[in-house]
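Action item from last week, closing it out:
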Amino acid sequence: MKAVAIQQHGGPEVLQVVELPEPAPRAQDVLVRVKAVALNHLDIWLRRGGSGLRPSLPHVPGSNVAGVVASVGAEVKDLAPGTEVLVNPGLSCGHCEACLAGDDPACRGFQLVGEHLPGGYAEYVAVPRRNVVPKPARLSFPEAACLPLSFLTAWTMLVRRAQVKPGEWVLVQAAGSGVGSAAVQICKLLGATVIATASSAEKLARLQELGVDHLINYAEQDFVTEVRRLTRRRMVDVVVEHTGAATFEKSVACLAGGGRMVLCGATTGAEVKLDLRVLFSKRLSVLGSTLGSKGDLLHLLRLVEQGRLRPVLDRTLPLEEAAQAHQLMEQRAQFGHIVLTP
């Protein structure tokens, strides 16, 4: 089969089109013919080889997969070839205490398709049956590929970790990203007032279409000053952080007393300064978060079917143009997701 693999760590040029054996599904596996795979910042970190992410090479990335069932293992009786599906990228044992409590990422055996296992930058990917869910019928394959990682991550951040309540104020940093565009929609669904930051007028206009209440161009405005003005010096209850070093200190400054910062990434750097006196005197909480449970993903897909949440697709490119897609993402040239189609 045709695939795009990381042959060595480095820039986008290390992504090479290769021929690999088609995966052979085990007894409880499903072989999915990939129709679309959405990029994620994880793909870039894996390619660079930094942040402790050094997969065995060559490695096929890609965690956000939508496709069609090609074949099933001998023990899979409830899924027919031709079924349109999404891949839940988080693999867990399913029987430990964490899994049974619905906290899949806390499973000691937790793995991610596209990170620990071969991903969707390929014509086929094999995954366990329990990691295959129905694709929302109202969505195209590229639209559906935008859902699994970003929406489940944002849902876990806001619902499970920060526990956003109606009437609260939420600041979403870099809201034109995949996680950011999902987060603003979930915040509005929860009844929050949303302030979103982005780097261009075009991205801000698209965020307004998603229902954002207040917009800040962080390339032209100091977002702390703007948050202070918009909230009449009260500041916000929750900050959604995934950019890291470039914004972390100022994000903390945007929190009201008793506020919560929830973070899932560090795209601009992982080392930050934190004044502990601010943390305890303002009674602040800093909450780490990652992915989420299979049950929450199914709930999200119902909300998508109902039209209450929608994926944000920037553009599609052929699989062979994966290197260009990575360049665009590193330049922050996209709003929402860039999707590759084999």
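Closing note: The chain has eleven helices and 17 strands.
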